[in-house]
Design a protein that fits this description.
- With 167 residues, this protein is mostly beta strands.
- It is built from 1 helix and 8 strands.
- A hairpin with a 4-residue loop joins strand 2 (29-33) and strand 3 (38-42).
- The longest helix is centred in the middle third of the chain and has 14 residues, at 57-70.
- It is globular.
């Protein structure tokens, strides 16, 4: 089913998941959908492998953690998710060098915490990894010394950005 993209989220300079100037990072792009879910698109490289031709499980956990943690920004872009707990279920091997989708959503929201789930989807629509996470809501000022300009925290629009995403 296709869903309309409402907004693209920010990227940074050096984050391992969203950093656009991190040569070894995933350089993921995040899109807010009309159904309230967040989609990350990324293409794992040879540098992200464990077994030959397969994405490392820790990298799979990182992209799921980032995507679920960012889903709260759909509701309030000033709140960041700090991971309290993350549970993963590995179901299928994840190939390298092909674009993959991560789908995340908020499943529970309270004043201090939120919970969410997410999946890494293979090109054929199968779920490769699923996750459930619990996050503490915090403003960035309480997490790190973060300068938006220095970190190049910005929305980077591209002609390749999808208008709709099939999930």
């Amino acid at each position: 089913m296709k869903h309309r993209v409402l907004k693209k989220q920010h990227n940074s300079k050096k984050c391992i998941v969203c950093g656009m100037e991190n040569e070894l990072g995933l350089r993921a792009s995040f899109y807010e959908l009309e159904n309230g879910e967040l989609i990350a698109l990324f293409k794992p490289l040879e540098e992200h492998q464990s077994y030959p031709g397969r994405l490392h499980g820790g990298i799979a956990g990182s992209i799921l953690d980032e995507t679920i943690g960012r889903a709260i920004m759909i509701i309030d872009e000033t709140i960041w998710g700090v991971t309290v707990e993350l549970r993963l279920k590995y179901k299928k091997p994840i190939p390298l060098n092909e674009e993959l989708r991560v789908i995340a959503r908020i499943t529970k929201d309270s004043s201090r915490l939120f919970e969410g789930t997410g999946e890494i989807m293979l090109g054929n629509g199968e779920v490769a990894v699923s996750a459930h996470g619990k996050y503490l809501k915090m403003p960035i000022e309480k997490i790190a010394d973060f300068n938006k300009d220095e970190q190049e925290w910005q929305v980077i629009l591209s002609d390749d950005d999808p208008k709709e995403i099939d999930i």
